[in-house]
Amino acid sequence: MNFNKTLTIWYSEHKRDLPWRKTKDPYYIWLSEIILQQTQIAQGLPYYEAFVTKYPTVFDLANAQESDVLKLWQGLGYYSRARNLHTTAKHVANNLDGVFPNSYQELLKLKGVGDYTASAIASICYGEPAAVVDGNVYRVLSRYFGIDTPINSTKGIKEFKMLAASLMDHENPSDYNQAIMEFGAVQCKPKNPYCYTCPLNESCVALQKNRIDELPVKLKKTKVSTKYFNFLVLLSTDKETIFQKRTSKGIWQNLYQFPLLETDQKLKIANFEKHPFIKSYFGDVPFDFSLYNNKDIVHKLSHQHLHTKFWIVEIDKLPQKGIPIADLKRYPTSILISNFIDEFFES
Fold first, then answer.
1. Are residues 292 and 173 in the same domain?
2. CB of 76 within 8 A of CB of 82?
C-alpha cells in the first residue's frame, strides 16, 4: 500500500474546513501553529480568529503591548507561548522586514518555534519536504507500524522523526503533512478510532494484533506536585483592590493576580491572622476577613496541582497602591483568577 498517497487522498475527501488552510501566508500559518500547540482545534479556533482580527499583520502584533497580547491569550494556558509569540513577531517585523524565514533550519531560530512548528511552516508555506511529528503523527505511525518505543523518550523521538522523514511525499509535502496530522485527529483518534472504515486497516499492525489501545507507548510523567495558594482579595472602602504583576519566572509570568500567600499545607481560618506573612503585610492596620471558598479550588496544571483559597479582606485603606475594582478585567490574568473575578464581582 502507498502510505502517503492513501493519506493524501483521504485528506482531500475528509479535511475540515479551517481558516488557516485557505492561505500559504507564513504569518497566519505560524500563528495557527503556535495557538494550537497543546490545544484542541475547537478551543483554539476562536483565539486564532480573535488574533487575526486584532492583529492582521505581523507588524500589528509586533506593535502591540505585551499585556494586550496576554489578555487576548487569556484562557489558553501555557502563557510562555504568548510571550514567545510576541517576541518573535517583534523580531520578524523589526529585524527581518516582516518576512518570515523560508526554510526549516532558519525557522528553527525563531523563539518558540521547535521541530514540529518549523516543519509545518516550511512544508505548508514553502513546499519543503520537512516531516512533521506531533501527537497525532506519533499515534498514526506507532499503530500502523506497531512500534512500541516510547514516544517521549530520546530514542523514540529520533526513531519516529526518521520514520516520518522516510515516508514524506516529496512532491506534495504540504498536503501530506496536513493529511497525516488530520488523520490522527479525526480518524485514528486516541480513543475509539474508526478502525473499520480506515483506509489503512488491512495493513495496520496494531489493528491486526489487537494493540490499538496500547499504542503509542509513553513513559510515565514526572510526579505532579501539590501547592497551596492563598489569594488575598483586598477590598477598600473606596472600592479599590491590589492586583499585582507576577514577575517571577514559571507559571503565569507577567500575568496579574491578587497578593499571594503560598503555604506548605492548607491554611485554616483560625490560623489566618496569626500567619507571619499576614502580620507583616497588614501590620497594625485593622481589617475584617472571610474565606470565599471553604472547599479548595483545585487548578490542575501539567506539572502541579494548585489547591486554592480566596480570602476576602475588607479594609479602610489599602497597605499599598491599588487599582479600581471596576478596572480588574482590563488586566491579563490566569483563567483561575478570571473565573473568580466573574463569580465574586459579578454575582
1. no
2. yes
Q: Residue 142: which CATH number?
A: 1.10.340.30
Residues 147-175 pLDDT 10s: 999 999 999 999 999 999 999 999 999 99
**Residue that has been written with the C-alpha cell 463569580 in this structure:** 343
Is residue 230 domain-shared with residue 209, that is, in the same domain? no
The residues, any chain, with a CB within 8 Å of residue 38's CB and separated by 6 or more, are 77, 78
Pairing state of beta strands 304-315 and 225-236?
Answer: parallel
Say if 315 falls within a structural domain. yes
- Which residues partner with 261 through β-bridges? 230
* Distance of alpha carbon 326 from the chain centroid: 29
33 annotated active-site: yes
Where a domain ends, among 155, 184, 214?
Answer: 214
Q: Which residues contact 297 (CB under 8 A, 6 or more apart)?
A: 307, 308, 309, 310, 336, 340
Q: What is the pLDDT of residues 89-130, one digit of tens each?
A: 999 999 999 999 999 999 999 999 999 999 999 999 999 999
- Among the options 33, 128, 182, 240, which is catalytic? 33
pTM here? 0.88
* Structural domain of 284: 225-346
